[in-house]
Each structure stands twice: as C-alpha cells, then as structure tokens.
Design brief:
3-stranded mixed sheet; alpha/beta; 12 strands; 7-stranded mixed sheet; Rossmann fold; single chain; 6 helices; globular
C-alpha cells in the first residue's frame, strides 16, 4: 500500500490531516524521521501557527534539508495552510526569517478592511486562474475553509491554481511540478476538500 508521510514538527492540525487521509482509505504516518519521509510515496507538510517558530522547529529537527530532498526527488509534496507559507521566501509575520524558498513569493498580512475580520476564519469560494491537478472534478466557485491572518502573493502567476477574495486577492493554491500547496484546509472543507486530497493521493 502506498504511504503518505505527514511531517511532524509540533505544529497544530496534523492529526486532522492524518484522519482525513485514513478516511479516504490510504495509509498515513505522522513522522519526523528522515528515512520514513524520504521513502514515502507522498509527503504532506500541514500546520497552523507562526512562520518564524515553525521554521525554527524545522531547522532544529533537521527537516529543512529532508523537505528539499523530498521535493528534488520528485515525490508529490503538499503544503497546507502554514505549510504553504513555509515553502516561500519570506513572511511579514517574521521579518528576517527566511522560508524554505522552494517557490518564489512572499507572505503578507491580510489588510484591515471595514467588515472583514483578521484572522480570516470561514468559508470562501475559489476561482481557478490556471488548471490545477488538485481541482480535477471540482467546479469553480466551490467553497473551502480558511483560517489565516497572512496570505500568499506568489511571484509567478503561472503557478497559481486557485484564488480567493478577502479584502485582497489571496493566492489560495499553487502547483509547480511535484509541489502543491493550499492556504485553506482541505481536511476541513467537506466533500470538496476530500476530493482535493483524493486528487493529490492519485498523483
């Protein structure tokens, strides 16, 4: 059976991702072990929390290099929420702390707008500016669940496969080669989210 490694770096929301993968009938292991991650068929980097703290934990556990190797060996890799943000170069949340830099772009704070609360917690519809394998069989304007105060502004428009509006244009999902990421939580996004995870697991 194919195994999905869920990277354990003491960030929140890891168990709910594991539960969703198992619900789909797939094998999942929550781990920080280098060899387990490198030998997995697919790898997921979930998480909620602060950018700088998370990068510190990844460095302390020796996981930054493991993540780079995983991506370099073309293993399908999915970042979720904070996991998306960490794949990019930097975040306004933690000035001076470099991200993994596997994709070009920056993480910015959601702007204060009348009637819009930060953090953004709730359901938002998606537009699909570019085709994305995660969204096969999912109609545009489908709703997914967000929990975040910071959002992605990707440098390469061509990698953005889903976008949402919340006081500004939020790059909600990206895809480049074997690297995928979602700012929203597919594991909390009902049937639409399960379809997204199922699409990832079939890549």
């Amino acid at each position: 059976m194919q195994t999905t490694a869920i990277i354990d770096y003491d960030a929140g929301n890891i168990r709910s991702v594991e539960k969703a993968i198992r619900y789909l009938g797939k094998d999942a292991v929550v781990t920080a072990d280098r060899e387990t991650i490198l030998s997995a068929d697919r790898v997921i980097l979930p998480g909620v929390g602060a950018f700088g703290d998370a990068m510190g934990r990844l460095h302390a556990l020796g996981l930054t290099e493991v993540i780079r190797q995983t991506v370099e060996q073309k293993t399908p890799f999915l970042g979720i929420c904070l996991g998306l943000q960490l794949l990019f170069e930097r975040s306004e949340e933690s000035p001076g702390v470099p991200g993994l830099g596997l994709l070009k772009g920056e993480i910015l704070r959601l702007p204060d707008r009348p009637g819009l609360k930060v953090p953004h917690i709730g359901w938002n519809s998606l537009k699909f500016p570019n085709p994305g394998r995660l969204f096969r069989g999912i109609p545009e304007d489908s709703f997914v669940y967000f929990v975040h105060s910071y959002y992605l502004k990707a440098e390469e428009a061509s990698i953005v496969t889903a976008a949402a509006q919340y006081g500004t244009l939020v790059h909600a999902s990206v895809e480049k080669d074997n690297l995928f990421a979602c700012q929203f939580h597919p594991e909390k996004s009902s049937e639409t989210g399960l379809t997204i995870l199922e699409n990832f697991l079939s890549i």
